[in-house]
Amino acid sequence: MSKDLKNNSQKSSHDVSFETRMIHGESLTQAWDFSKPLIPPVSSSTTFRLGSVERGAAGFQSFASEKFNDDPIWIYDRLDDPNALMLENQLAKAEGAETAVTFGTGMAAIAGSILTLCKQNQEVLCHKTIYGCTFSLLKNWLPKFGIQGKFVDLTQGCEEFITDKTRIIYFETVSNPDLEIIDIESIAAITRKLNINRSDEDKILIVIDNTFPTPCGAQPLRLGADLVIHSLTKNISGFGTEMGGVVIGAKRFETSLKLARKDFGAVLHPHAAWDINVHGLPTLYLRNKQQQQNALQIAQFLEAHPAVKSVKYPGLESFKFFNMAQKVLRNAEGEFNPGYMISFELHDAEKHTTAFVNHVAEHSYSITLAVSLGLTKTLIELPNYMTHAAVDEQHKTDFKFDPFLVRLSVGLENANDIINDLKAALP
Ligand code: PLP
Question: By alpha-carbon position, which residue is closest to atom 2 of ligand 1?
Fold first, then answer.
């Protein structure tokens, strides 16, 4: 490497802003030859030359250990790969954390983290509204391993629901689909107090799905969470081309997460890691900022429309969680970021909602009826029948799930075009 490049590669990225860091990444990394391509190459080899028995054995020994990060011996893509490592370094920095472990999807990250942290007879205390498949994982699958999900309203506090079995308190920074916001700092204060008398493997851990806000909109680790999860499929990937998931937090969680990922096989594809690192993260800040501006304008339009009964958007003063949003939805620089997700209900909802959404599906140019969220394109859906179809009827009745809530993920189109499409479809 020439002297100039060497100097360049040793530049510190400590004091640069979030958006600059997401564009340039690690200035010095073991994962790629910095002196050659400007953009890291996509690694397309599932297996790697080991060179000698001794080096191969050393590779298996150092996998998932501290040593790997200093001098990686690449072995096989299900263990670790250069593209995933680069992405993990970026994601850890984005959340202000020590480490990040990527997974094949958001659900794999959620399942991987719960299975890693819990043993038999422990409980996950979970907020009543969460993404439908997370509900299904806790309700239908984890009990087979002796891990129980207990669903409560965490906006009302958590202390009275905690038992000796509680291992994880689990919620979404902004709940899917009704955008409820929980006081992370107050839950963290309670767990800190209770954890004084608990052994390490029984300590209560706060695990938060930060998919809706992304690190641009909230930094739950700074507020007291132990682990943060993202579905990378959404706003972080951003273009609707890749699936992925990640668990982010302190170094002490890394080894078991990587070992579990290796044996369950829920690894992120290197092409997806490359794409998120090269296209998703470098554009996240700009996309998120524009989507948020659009969302505020659209939420204000909906709030003023006579056919709309109520609008949930963290940036509206009328929203029940507006004050909590001011506390929780802040980026690393402390700026308020109410996000790009809006949920709303129509007057006479039973009569009008399906026709309204079908009108959008048939006639709108800028809004598409589709699940997923956080993408460049604006998406609309009905959670009760789509993303939350897996939530059982009893749970929906117990917690008054709104069957006609409409969920809108605002994209990068001109806000006036989205508003015109909504205007045309509203009764
Ligand atoms: N978490 C939230 C809040 C989601 O909305 C979703 C998917 O919609 C997931 C997790 C699961 O992510 P994935 O589809 O990448 O498995």
Answer: 131
